[in-house]
Specification:
Layout: H1 3-34, H2 46-58, H3 67-83, H4 86-96, H5 107-135, H6 150-182, H7 194-197, H8 206-230, H9 238-247, H10 261-271, H11 302-310, H12 316-320, H13 322-325, H14 332-352, H15 364-368, H16 371-375, H17 382-386, H18 393-406, H19 413-425, H20 438-441
Helix pairs in contact: 1-4, 1-8, 1-14, 2-9, 3-5, 5-6, 6-8, 9-11, 11-14, 14-18
This protein binds iron/sulfur cluster (SF4) (2 copies).
């Protein structure tokens, strides 16, 4: 083995270990942050959950409700994943100094490389259409106020990365093909797209083609490692988290709200004539009293926090939300983005303070989400129905409302009046119970 080849293998090994290692380092932070949430039982009916995950996350059944975006998304997703099977060959070649190690598969290898090339071209076409829809056609859901700055740039960056990676793959193949053709040698594989797309390589010398092939090979694998690590900072983390996210979906009817255990316990205590009203819950005198509802990410469940990490920022929820459509400040997508932002800030706080969260004087409601947004919700569930990966923004809205009402007594005036009427008159209206039938008498 010559020293250049040895150096190249060593460099490859270091790049691979660093790339995967840094990714694992960041994913552990995501796990830690999600585990800041309250536990919740979402492991019932495992068979139903596996079926749902196969249908909704893998099969993308809810994506095709909007056929153009849905089919393009499936194409990019499937294409990108399948083409990256080729990464396995690149890794083996990189580690052992081989070249196209799977070429012994003969016709199977030809068919695989040929179909990868067709898929790569389709991915490029789909990515260009996505870019046009976002930036030229300016589809309204991509231009809402929460999509300014990083969310907008992030969505475009990923399109550029995907396009560049596919072009690197195709140009690498084309250079390899023409280098072998110039030298009169056979090269395993079939190259229906690359040899035509990069037809001008035909006029390059063999040495130049070898250099292009090596540069593109390195660019391709380093680009994939970069992409892997970019996921952590991007909404594209959903390509990994969508699967567990769907698995932990709410299986009960959409309109069914969960009972608040803390309230249930209080009521039970009130009804129990033998209960000691001053006793601490579960007899633990050091226990911190449970918050009613959610004021911060710590009060949300682990599944709600996983939802926040999984949001693709597609805006399908917001485009169906009647509050948003009628000009209210609420956007369910923003609820998920704000929850993730707060969780990330909490995570950074923990990293900075040796593993402990130090109160930063902020909370989810008030500093990230405003009460005006929360009270604009009609609880219609259009957002949960529209979400392609079964995210539940309504559950966060309801939990924050519960906090505002029960901990802060900060419900809007109209609601306070209505609740007062229910308490005093047994109905939401401002009439005495005795006057209820007055309307009948006057007719
Ligand atoms: S449940 Fe609330 S947030 Fe969701 S679509 Fe309806 S109004 Fe909008
Ligand atoms: S909550 Fe669902 S529908 Fe809404 S932006 Fe996120 S992924 Fe899209």
């Amino acid at each position: 083995m010559d020293s250049l080849s040895y150096l190249s293998q060593m460099f490859f090994l270091i790049a691979l270990v660093c790339g995967i290692g840094f990714f694992i380092f960041n994913v552990r932070k995501v796990f830690r942050n999600i585990n800041l949430g309250r536990p919740t039982n979402r492991t019932d009916n495992p068979n139903e959950r596996w079926t749902l995950m196969t249908k909704v996350a893998l099969g993308q059944s809810k994506m095709v409700v909007r056929p153009v975006a849905g089919i393009l998304h499936i194409l990019v997703y499937a294409g990108f994943i399948i083409i990256n099977l080729e990464v396995l060959e690149i890794i083996i070649d990189g580690l052992f100094g081989t070249h196209r190690v799977f070429s012994f598969l003969g016709p199977v290898y030809d068919a695989l490389i040929g179909s990868f090339e067709v898929l790569a071209l389709l991915v490029i076409v789909a990515v260009i259409i996505f870019w046009i829809r976002r930036n030229i056609q300016k589809i309204p859901r991509f231009w809402k106020r929460e999509m300014k700055g990083w969310p907008k740039d992030d969505a475009n960056y990923i399109l550029y990365i995907e396009c560049v990676l596919m072009l690197a793959f195709l140009s690498m193949n084309a250079a390899d093909y023409y280098a072998h053709a110039n030298a009169g040698e056979d090269l395993a594989g079939s190259f229906p797209i690359s040899k035509n797309l990069f037809f001008f390589f035909n006029s390059f010398g063999t040495e130049t083609l070898h250099i292009i092939e090596r540069v593109m090979w390195w660019f391709h694998i380093l680009g994939i490692l970069f992409f892997l690590n970019y996921l952590y900072y991007s909404k594209h983390f959903h390509i990994l988290s969508a699967f567990p996210n769907v698995w932990f979906s709410k299986l009960e009817p959409k309109g069914q709200l969960n009972n608040l255990e803390s309230v249930k316990n209080e009521v039970k205590l009130m009804m129990d004539p033998n209960a000691d009203p001053f006793a601490a819950p579960s007899g633990d005198t050091t226990a911190v009293p449970e918050t009613f509802g959610a004021k911060d990410v710590f009060d949300l469940t682990k599944v709600q926090l996983l939802n926040a990490y999984s949001c693709t920022e597609c805006g399908r929820c917001t485009s169906e939300c009647p509050a948003n459509i009628t000009g209210k400040k609420l956007s369910p997508r923003k609820i998920m983005m704000d929850t993730r932002d707060r969780l990330e800030d909490v995570g950074k706080n923990i990293d900075k303070n040796d593993g402990k969260f130090v109160d930063d004087g902020k909370k989810l409601i008030g500093d990230y989400i405003q009460p005006e947004e929360i009270w604009a919700c009609t609880s219609c569930n259009a957002c949960t129905q529209a979400c392609p990966i079964n995210i539940d923004p309504l559950s966060i809205i309801i939990d924050i409302r519960r906090y505002l009402v029960m901990e802060e007594s900060a419900a809007p005036m109209e609601l306070n009046l209505m609740m007062q009427n229910v308490e005093n008159n047994g109905a939401p209206w401002q009439f005495n119970i005795a006057d209820r039938l007055n309307w009948a008498e006057s007719n």
